[in-house]
């Protein structure tokens, strides 16, 4: 595919470009692409087998209480995904971790969005301070035993793709917790 033309059509929290593309058969098509910063998601696990989760409103689906793992966008000043993960874990939960395991990096919708999400498992998580939320963040943090979090997944109460992938990719590391 070849980009023949790119025009910014919206700039806000997200940016949107309209592209004119030459596709493999020689035809041209137009597509809209959402430009979003890269992100991280953290699966936080305490030494005693608890997981920290957040519950927050999400405008895209009109949900008041989306259950998710801590996550956030990579800031321009940050050099790598790990520093973002450490910052977001501390800001959203007030916790730090003894160890971060790099699980996977993925695109949630490469057909129309530029964002890449990097997923970490945080082990030895402990609370060291209160939350430091941004002015536009309204989330509640809570913790549950690991097996209860997997039960929420099975019941369909966790619908956030980052959290679902996080639970699936973390499972092999968490075998000692009798999930």
Overall tally of structural domains: 2
What's the pLDDT, averaged over the residues?
Answer: 95
Question: Per the principal axes of the C-alpha atoms, what is the gross shape?
Answer: elongated
Indicate the low-confidence ranges by residue numbers: none
DSSP summary: helix tally: 3
Kindly identify the CATH topology of the largest domain: Nucleoside Triphosphate Pyrophosphohydrolase
Number of strands: 12
Q: Which strand-content bin applies to the residues? A: 35-45%
Q: Evaluate the radius of gyration.
A: 18 Å
Order of helices and strands: EEEEEEEHEEEEEHH
Main sheet characteristics: 4 strands, mixed
**Name of the CATH first level of the largest domain:** Alpha Beta
* First-residue to last-residue Cα separation: 45 Å
- Helix content estimate: 10-25%
Which architecture of the largest domain does the CATH hierarchy give at level 2? Alpha-Beta Complex
